[in-house]
Amino acid sequence: MDRILQVFQNKLICSICRNYFIDPITIDCGHSFCRPCFYLSLPNRSVLARCSECQKAIQQRDFHTNVCLKQMVLIVRQARLWQFLRSRDNRCGIHMEAKQIFCEDQRSQLCLHCSTSQEHEAHRHGSVEEAAEQHREKLLKTMCSLWEKCCENDRNLNVETVTSRSWEELPPGVECAPTANLLWPTNLLRFILLVYVTSKGEAIRAEYDQLAPFFYMKEHHHLERLQREGKEIFYQLKDSEARMAQKRELLRGMYTELKEMYHKPDVELLLDFGDILHRSEAVCVHMPQPVKAELTAVTIPEMMTRFNLFKEATSLVFGRTHSHVFLQGDVISLSIGCIIQGAPCAFPQSECFFYWNTQTFTTGRHYWEIEVGDIWNWALGVSCDDWIMMNINLHKAFYLLGCAKTDMHHNVFTTCPLLLQYVPKPIGRVGVFLDYEDRSVTFVNVAQSSLIRRISYCSFSPRLRPIFCCSHF
Fold first, then answer.
1. Staple partner for 244: which of 157, 189, 253, 311, CB 3.0–4.6 Å?
2. CATH superfamily of 303-472
3. Which residues does the UniProt record annotate as the domain B30.2/SPRY (predicted)?
């Protein structure tokens, strides 16, 4: 019988921590673990997780509590507690009775006579068994809340790390970016956002080259401001990344401490509980937030006047398709497609309002504006006329500016190549300037008369047409 009982108890032990299960979960392959142990053993969400027992891939990430296992663990814990409470080691030294009462006020274990004495009669009392389970439920609730903070911080840290890397990677073939003439100090070249700031500077210079020499000083101040803000944002990103990494260690350390407290025997848990819940709350205060990596929108004089010389009225035709415009992790994903009669919808969760121009462009310079208001999840620009209506290759068919919402934040991006744009979210009208011979597409914030992005060296098809879509989830 003892042998059977031993086998039964072993089945209730987590293979990671070698203790009885805490809030047990059963994963895809059928193996069970403590929820805290499973969470702490997971790699980041971009890496395929595997079961530590059988090494099978874990597809699911959200698991329900295995209620049956949890109840069996409770039975075993209660049996061990009852055995201890009846032992000689648990007798009151004065009354020689079992100490089965727990005093909340003095955090002490009492026998029935002591609990009714003048010293303790006004205190809050309860059975050791009930008090232990109540404290464990408090720990579980706190651990759940704390893990949400861990995940929030990990998401923010991932965003900050990706953004920071994009500000420090040197573009292929560029050693000191001499053509940008931004005068970056050599020892900062590998640290500053050369990819974005260099291309932004070149686009700004290209616009000023169209103006009279009178505007040279404005150009100089504009580029100086660009490099100054680039440095400031880079250092803010690195500081924020460090603070989030430190917060990650504090949160996970606190989570591990709560888990270890939960594993303690009932009486030891009650006596050692102390202020652990208050300390857990304190760790969650002042959660670091991602830096708003935005360069100031600066007006380029006479730019809108020049573009308006080529302004054309757009006649966009309305259509409707299932599509999506969104960000997933650190990769921008954009898909556009029309409904084919009788074909299943690739993205049924979103509806896209889709517009394109009846006129096509085969030469010349053209400028038009589109009202985007203050909405999210839109994309506009130029499409090649030979695009396939479903499953489009964005790198060959579209030159777009888009604005996508993720959580409570927004991201502005362009395609060809797919890049984040560190500019304020455009509100109102967005201008598109197509220079067919120069093989470039320029996007401008009309309200602020500022440059958003200039895409150069485009691989245009023989015919181009304006396009706009906005999706709603």
1. 157
2. SPRY domain (2.60.120.920)
3. 294-473
